[in-house]
Design brief:
about 160 residues; elongated; mainly alpha; 7 helices; single chain
Length: about 160
């Protein structure tokens, strides 16, 4: 099924390239044919003539080039959606359950195929040089439960 998205993307890129080339050619030809008419506008410094002069290079594309562009973008979008990997669930509990349910064989198979499986935050969870707050809280709670014999600040 990986062939269809690739084909759609290639066709979409080729059609989009042709649409961009056609739009460029159309705008160039239209600008060349309308440029001599700019001298026919009144030369007064009124805002109306300035607006009219600024509108002369304005180019509207023909319907076929516009449709070709929209079809090309649609083909590329469909190809990208079909070629994307399966989405992971949004809820953390379901995601964690799926991580625990995956066996080592599935993880090894996924790594061979280039698919990303497993805990995507594993690199962040095992960082060296950072303070582990949960471990420190646990140590402090154990220290409080054991008692504070000989600690500075206690009243004897």
């Amino acid at each position: 099924m990986a062939l269809l998205p690739a084909v759609l993307n290639v066709i979409g890129i080729l059609v989009l390239t042709h649409a961009v080339y056609s739009a460029n050619e159309h705008s160039t030809l239209l600008a060349l044919t309308t440029a001599p008419h700019a001298s026919l506008l009144p030369s007064s410094s009124s805002t109306t003539s300035a607006i009219l002069r600024s509108l002369i290079p304005h180019i509207t594309l023909p319907l076929d080039i516009t449709l070709e562009t929209l079809i090309a973008v649609g083909l590329i979008c469909v190809g990208l959606v079909l070629g994307s990997p399966a989405l992971r669930p949004i809820e953390w509990a379901r995601w964690a359950g799926q991580l625990e349910a995956e066996s080592a064989e599935e993880l090894a198979k996924g790594r061979e195929e280039g698919e990303v499986l497993g805990n995507s935050f594993a690199a962040l969870e095992h960082r060296n040089g950072f303070l582990d707050i949960r471990r420190k809280r646990k140590e402090f709670a154990e220290w409080v439960r054991e008692g504070r014999d000989g600690v500075v600040g206690t009243v004897n």
